[in-house]
């Protein structure tokens, strides 16, 4: 009798945690930038310019529909790059999704309406391997291409 009761409780508790917990990929995100020339004649040579990594964020835990904001100082400027991530079950039907945002702020605060540039991307949980968000922005007189790249290291 007691064994059955313990077994039933164990099955119920395990089932509840499976419903509440959602399988999410572990990922590593990096922020990269390239200074862009001001003249239009050199713009075609952008693929030959070196990328500079100026930020990294590693997530090895669950993100249960809560926004995560990370702030990284953009080199040689007074600006922060704001990397924002959010998970959702409702955005993509029957799949769940990861939403990635890249914006800029003078303070360590997310404010996409006052940002000089904004870019976003969305990917599914099931097929997430690598995701990139690109934007071109001018900060303190420096024009640059900024890339947010997030990858699942275990795939």
Characterise the protein shown here.
- It is a single chain.
- The chain is mainly beta and 155 residues long.
- It has one domain (25-151).
- The chain contains one helix and eight strands.
- The protein has one helix spanning 2-20; strands spanning 27-35, 52-59, 68-73, 80-88, 97-105, 118-124, 130-139, 142-151.
- The strands form two sheets. It has a four-stranded antiparallel beta sheet, with no helix packed on it. A four-stranded antiparallel beta sheet has the order 3-4-5-6, with no helix packed on it.
- Strand 4 and strand 5 form a beta hairpin.
- The longest helix has 19 residues, at 2-20.
- The relative contact order is 0.20.
- Mean pLDDT is 80; it is low at 16-25.
Number of domain modules: 1
| Strands in their spatial order, largest beta sheet | 2-1-8-7
The helix content, as a percent range, equals 10-25%
Major sheet attributes: 4 strands, antiparallel
Q: H/E order of the elements? A: HEEEEEEEE
Low-confidence stretches: 16-25
Distance between the termini: 45 Å
Radius of gyration over alpha carbons? 20 Å
Give the number of helices.
Answer: 1
Mean pLDDT, as a whole number? 80
Globally, the shape reads elongated
Class from helix and strand fractions: mainly beta
Q: How much strand content do the residues show?
A: 35-45%
Number of strands: 8
Write out key terms for the chains shown.
155 residues, mainly beta, four-stranded antiparallel β-sheet
Helices and strands in order:
Blueprint: H1 2-20, E1 27-35, E2 52-59, E3 68-73, E4 80-88, E5 97-105, E6 118-124, E7 130-139, E8 142-151
Antiparallel strand pairs: 1-2, 1-8, 3-4, 4-5, 5-6, 7-8
